[in-house]
């Protein structure tokens, strides 16, 4: 999974083409059977030199979906600008099939696609970068239902943060389908997701705080001030009642310069009476350990003098 925060434009795509008897707009029938072309779906081809990428797999899957179906889920979200959706599983290596809704057509089963036969209303289909895909709200709905709760929330956070999906609009969309498959799962995801998370690891840390620790949800990435109102930092997670800061230190924090800045920031926060706890990737894979350390920080925070404020 990518850690992209803002909207991103899809990379280059080579659109599959049908056989052309003249060999101008596509391969001749003979050329299509040779080594220079690769069939992407029945009747459509691309040159064998075409690079493999998430975007290329999407445009080829769209050829399978035809003019009655649409790509959805992570693939549609990527077309809408969600850079987190790179077509890879959580391990960063496994290639995920492209989800498609067949709509009123029929899509043949193939390892490169995951076919849904759910209803596809016309008003939930748009054309983005020349590809038929579902609207952003429908795409996120399909995507979160494909994941367990915590990873589903990660995907919602990543779609909300850059504005690819509007959280309020998604709530309206969910309210319009009360009896749909796994609608309860999607509603829980909506309630847990926020618009201010800045990384998947931060989301997972927040979910441990809420789901495993059972504590009120912290604020995400708010500005902390000193007693004079001067901004001193922006912690990942902040308990504004007790004064506990929790930070997720991802790969970017491994450099010497960044680590030095992190230590200075911790010193500043502690000097204002905030309790501080930092966690890494392996930590969020061990929720009981995280809960134990957060609980200890909360106990210490109860004994400190508050000399800080915050700005939403």
What's the order of the H and E elements? HEEHEHEEEEHHHHHEEEEEHEHHE
Q: Please bin the fraction of helical residues.
A: 25-40%
Structural class: alpha+beta
Helix tally?
11
Mean pLDDT: 93
What is the general shape?
elongated
Radius of gyration: 23 Å
Task: Give the domain tally.
Answer: 2
Strand order of the largest sheet: 8-11-12-13
Distance between the termini: 29 Å
Largest sheet: 4 strands, mixed
What is the number of strand segments?
Answer: 14
Low-confidence stretches: none
Q: What percent strand? A: 15-25%
How would you describe this protein?
The protein is an alpha+beta fold and 312 residues long. The protein folds into 2 domains: 29-195, no CATH class; 201-311, Endonuclease, Chain A (3-Layer(aba) Sandwich), CATH 3.40.960. It is built from 11 helices and 14 strands. The strands form 5 sheets. The protein has a 4-stranded mixed beta sheet, sandwiched between helices. It is elongated. The mean pLDDT is 93.
What structural keywords apply?
single chain; 312 residues; alpha+beta; Endonuclease, Chain A; 2 domains; four-stranded mixed beta sheet; three-stranded mixed beta sheet; 11 helices; 14 strands; 36% helix; 16% strand; elongated
Question: Would you spell out the secondary-structure blueprint of this structure?
Answer:
Layout: H1 29-32, E1 37-41, E2 44-47, H2 54-65, E3 70-71, H3 73-80, E4 98-101, E5 113-116, E6 125-128, E7 131-134, H4 136-144, H5 149-160, H6 167-175, H7 183-192, H8 200-212, E8 219-220, E9 223-225, E10 231-233, E11 237-239, E12 244-248, H9 256-271, E13 275-279, H10 281-284, H11 287-301, E14 309-311
Parallel strand pairs: 4-5, 12-13
Antiparallel strand pairs: 1-2, 3-4, 6-7, 8-11, 9-10, 9-14, 11-12
């Amino acid at each position: 999974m990518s850690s992209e925060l803002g909207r991103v434009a899809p990379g280059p795509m080579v659109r599959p083409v049908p056989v052309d008897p003249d060999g101008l707009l596509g391969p001749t029938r003979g050329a299509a059977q040779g080594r220079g072309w690769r069939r992407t779906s029945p009747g459509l081809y691309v040159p064998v030199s075409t690079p493999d990428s998430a975007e290329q797999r999407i445009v080829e899957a769209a050829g399978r979906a035809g003019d009655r179906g649409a790509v959805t889920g992570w693939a549609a979200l990527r077309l809408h600008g969600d850079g987190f959706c790179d077509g890879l599983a959580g391990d960063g290596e496994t290639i995920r099939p492209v989800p498609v809704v067949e709509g009123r057509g029929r899509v043949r089963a193939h390892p490169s696609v995951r076919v849904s036969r759910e209803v596809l209303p016309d008003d939930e289909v748009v054309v983005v970068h020349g590809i038929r895909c579902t609207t952003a709200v429908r795409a996120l709905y399909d995507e979160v239902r494909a994941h367990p709760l915590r990873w589903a929330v990660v995907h919602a956070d990543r779609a909300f943060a850059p504005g690819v999906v509007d959280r309020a609009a998604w709530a309206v969309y969910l309210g319009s389908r009360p009896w749909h498959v796994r609608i309860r799962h999607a509603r829980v995801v909506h309630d847990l997701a926020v618009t201010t998370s800045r990384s998947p690891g931060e989301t997972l840390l927040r979910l441990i705080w809420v789901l495993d620790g059972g504590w009120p949800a912290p604020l995400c990435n708010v500005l902390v001030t000193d007693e004079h109102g001067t901004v001193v930092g922006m912690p990942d997670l902040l308990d504004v009642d007790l004064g506990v800061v929790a930070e997720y230190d991802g790969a970017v924090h491994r450099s010497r310069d960044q680590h030095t800045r992190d230590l200075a920031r911790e010193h500043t926060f502690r000097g204002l009476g905030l309790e501080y706890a930092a966690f890494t990737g392996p930590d969020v894979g061990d929720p009981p350990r995280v809960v134990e350390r957060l609980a200890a920080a909360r106990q210490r925070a109860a004994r400190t003098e508050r000399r800080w404020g915050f700005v939403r």
